[in-house]
Write a structure and sequence with these properties.
It is a single chain. It is built from 22 helices and 25 strands. It has six domains: 61 residues; 246 residues, D-amino Acid Aminotransferase, Chain A, domain 1; 83 residues, OB fold (Dihydrolipoamide Acetyltransferase, E2P) (Beta Barrel), CATH 2.40.50.140; 74 residues, Orthogonal Bundle (DNA polymerase, domain 1); 69 residues, 5' to 3' exonuclease, C-terminal subdomain (DNA polymerase, domain 1, Orthogonal Bundle); 84 residues, BRCT domain (Rossmann fold, 3-Layer(aba) Sandwich), CATH 3.40.50. Helix 20 links the parallel strand 22 and strand 23. The protein is 34% helix and 18% strand. By secondary structure, the protein is an alpha+beta fold. It binds nicotinamide-adenine-dinucleotide and zinc ion. The site of nicotinamide-adenine-dinucleotide has 22 residues, from helix 1, helix 2 and strand 3. GO terms for molecular function: DNA ligase (NAD+) activity. Belongs to the NAD-dependent DNA ligase family. LigA subfamily. This is DNA ligase.
Length: 699
């Protein structure tokens, strides 16, 4: 397990700036939970500060967070009877072994037993019980004194107002929000016009201190220690002598909540090896827990071992936090995509500024449903807290509302199905395309009939929906065998429109292979890639027969894409067979197939391959502005097809590698750029002449 690198501070000025930033962040973090940094960013800053101080001890500033509980930021006026300390950290099994050795050296004997428990990600509080009644709730503060937050008594699950026995003692533990409580809290807050909490920890920090709110939100307490108070009486001796594990059992018996009833219950073990097994167990359960943990705490279990190890000013020497990598980062919400599933469910997905979390780069997060977006008050451009642990799909916890600039924009919801264009059924929380399971079919047929594919005039989405709903087509090959009489029976299909449609479909039967292949909708093969594939293989048979290696011969296809295409083509084989049977053209005019493997390769003496004799052989051509003359009627896609038929490569942007810019009227920035770069520029008429032999009327 590794940690992210520390911030590197190069001089006294950047050190001072870092100290100030850390102090501000910690103050915000402990007061309201509204820090501008995520924990990982804060920890990297704090480590950078500590490293600088180690190299330049004389420069150390008073405000430095190093060695202080709560980074020196928290305050309070209720003294603790025994300091409430922080914990030192280790990040690996090796560091842990080094630490145990140092404890054992200090106490002069092996540690008798270890307790292993979750490091709960909330905030520490001390709950003072007098004769079984909850009397006072105090925060950790700076470790020596904390704030009185007794107003929160009664709002925290697991911290009963009455114990099952009239004992006097102080229970210490963590107050947090479970995932469910967090969701609940943000719902209530946004309903009251408030800003959502960025994550459960901030929610707990903000809620614990808040008074006089018009609503109540619930939190949960987990005890992890108990100690005697001055008037504890005879239980004082018991508490002072019980091993840690038994203290937890004792407080649980009094009715206080501990982690014992969770999947990561505290355990007591004898060896370092068993500790590490426990660490792994807890770490592996992290993603599935209904509350957040940020590590595992390991403690010497026996009171005598703890006493002999003692404590420093910031942390005890008998306990350590085995930190787990940060699973939350702040990043920006760039956009929302709406994807349609197999059954027509329309699911929003957040597009994020890519951020590294726990070793992987996260660029997307789930958003459940539109109501969820509204409820969480997410806006485009928001800084958001993103959570990703283990194999779970990354999710947005909440916007970091205090980082808003005012430039955030509302998220727009689609008005029609983003896949097929039909109406959306918004009656349930999860929106659904009214075409349901047929949505994909409608979309794939509409795509196949589209302008850049088979270009079937008169076959728009509405008509496709009609054909699909009437059960006349189950894939786009069925278009070619439509029955005139059944078409006539449809609503709004008179003789003329029926015959026009059938004629348009018949014309489409003769489209070049590049378009027929494009119509299949294989992932990653849009217009220009389909043309490259069709020109390379010349016939559908060869495309279908191509293996991963053969496909990689096509410009722009890497191993991964090739494998994807091969797999999809296997699935599409029945559709292709149906198209062949329907008499659809399966060859690319003018393309020469690659030599069959095994046959002697003909050497034409040029490395440019077959395209070398063509007028645009080896050239990269960009088209801009309005085409005129012989080229006037050609769409941009058809222009690109023409360029490729004539042996060139079409591109959409001008660069140093552009060989020729075809610039029509109203050519703008591309022309200027070509002039700047000295790229050859041709007018449409000049270009038409150059490629006249390839200017065949489009079939
Ligand atoms: N984002 C920010 O701006 C910001 C600012 C300051 C601190 N922080 C974060 O706070 C952390 C440091 O805070 P810290 O000093 O509170 O220390 P800590 O969270 O690293 O560890 C000590 C605390 O762990 C808690 N704890 C949880 N489970 C426990 C258990 N089973 N037994 C004992 N203790 C347990 C206790 O509250 C204890 O005080 C860092 O992770 C840092 O990233 C963030
Ligand atoms: Zn749809």
């Amino acid at each position: 397990m590794t940690t992210n690198p520390a911030v590197v501070l190069v001089d006294a000025a950047s050190y001072a700036a870092a100290v100030e930033e850390a102090a501000q962040a910690a103050a915000a973090y402990y007061a309201t939970g509204e820090s501008m940094l995520d924990d990982d960013a804060y920890d990297r800053l704090a480590r950078g500060i500590a490293a600088y101080e180690e190299a330049h001890p004389q420069d150390t500033l008073d405000a430095s967070p190093t060695g202080k509980v709560a980074g020196g930021a928290a305050v309070g006026d209720v003294p603790h009877t025994v300091p409430m300390l922080s914990l030192d950290n280790v990040f690996s099994a090796e560091q842990f072994a080094t630490w145990t050795a140092s404890v054992e050296r200090r106490i002069g004997r092996p540690v008798a037993a270890w307790s292993v428990e979750p490091k709960l990600d909330g905030l520490a509080v001390a709950a003072r019980y007098r004769e079984g009644r909850l009397d006072q709730l105090i925060t950790r503060g700076d470790g020596t004194a904390g704030e009185d937050v007794s107003h929160a008594i009664g709002t925290v699950l697991g911290l009963p107002e009455r114990l099952s026995a009239p004992v006097t003692l102080e229970v210490r533990g963590e107050i947090l929000m479970t995932d469910e409580q967090f969701e609940q809290a943000n719902t209530v807050r946004t309903e009251h016009g408030g800003a959502p909490f960025a994550n459960p920890r901030n929610g707990a920090a903000g809620t614990l201190r808040a008074k006089d709110r018009p609503y109540r939100v619930e939190m949960t307490f987990f005890a992890y220690a108990a100690l005697a108070l001055p008037d504890s009486g005879e239980s004082a001796a018991t508490l002072a002598e019980l091993p840690h594990g038994e203290v937890l059992t004792y407080v649980a018996g009094l009715g206080v909540h501990t982690a014992a009833d969770t999947a990561v219950a505290p355990r007591t073990v004898g060896t370092v090896e068993d500790v590490l097994t426990g660490v792994e167990d807890i770490a592996s359960l992290r993603a599935s827990l209904p509350f957040g943990i940020d590590g595992i705490v390991i403690k010497a279990d026996l009171a005598a071992d703890q006493r002999d190890a003692g404590s420093g000013t910031r942390a005890p020497r008998w306990a350590i936090a085995y930190k787990l990598p940060a699973v939350e980062k702040i990043t920006r919400l760039l956009g929302v995509e709406w994807n349609v599933g197999r059954t027509g469910i329309i699911a929003p997905r957040a597009v994020l500024e890519p951020v590294e979390i726990d070793g992987s780069t996260v660029g997307y997060a789930t958003l459940h449903n539109p109501a969820d977006i509204t409820r969480r008050d997410l806006r485009l451009g928001d800084q958001v807290m993103v959570y990703k642990a283990g194999d779970i799909i990354p999710r947005i916890e909440a916007p970091v509302a205090h980082l808003r600039t005012g430039d955030e924009k509302p998220i727009e919801f689609p008005e029609t199905c983003p896949q097929c264009g039909s109406e959306i059924d918004t009656s349930e929380q999860r929106w659904r395309c009214t075409r349901g399971r047929n949505c994909r079919l409608v979309a794939s047929i509409s795509y196949a009939a589209g302008r850049d594919q088979l270009d079937i005039e008169g076959l728009g989405t509405t008509r496709v929906v009609q054909l699909v709903d009437a059960g006349l087509v189950a894939d786009f090959a069925d278009l070619f065998t439509l029955d005139r009489a059944r078409l006539l029976a449809l609503e709004r299909m008179g003789e003329t429109s029926t015959d026009n449609l059938l004629a348009a479909i018949d014309t489409a039967r003769a489209r070049p292979l590049s378009r027929v292949f494009c119509a299949l909708g294989v992932r990653g093969t849009g217009r220009s890639m389909s043309r490259r594939i069709a020109r390379h293989f010349a016939t559908m048979d060869r495309i279908v027969a191509a293996d991963v290696d053969a496909l990689q011969q096509v410009d722009g296809i890497g191993k991964e894409k090739a494998a994807g295409v091969v797999t999809e083509l296997v699935e599409l084989a029945p559709l292709v067979a149906k198209l062949v049977a329907a008499g659809v053209n399966m060859t690319e005019p003018g393309a020469t197939p690659p030599p069959e493997p095994g046959t002697a390769q003909e050497d034409d003496g040029e490395d440019g391959g077959p395209s070398a004799d063509l007028p645009l052989g080896g050239m990269t051509v960009v088209v801009t502005g309005a085409m005129t003359g012989a080229l006037e009627k050609l769409s941009r896609n058809q222009m690109n097809e023409l360029i490729e038929r004539a042996g060139g490569k079409s591109s959409s942007s001008v660069s140093k590698r552009t060989s020729l810019l075809v610039a029509g009227e109203k050519a703008g920035s591309k022309r200027t750029k070509a002039e700047d770069l000295g790229v050859r520029i041709a007018a449409p008429a000049e270009f038409a002449e150059l490629v006249s032999a390839f200017l065949v009327p489009e079939v």
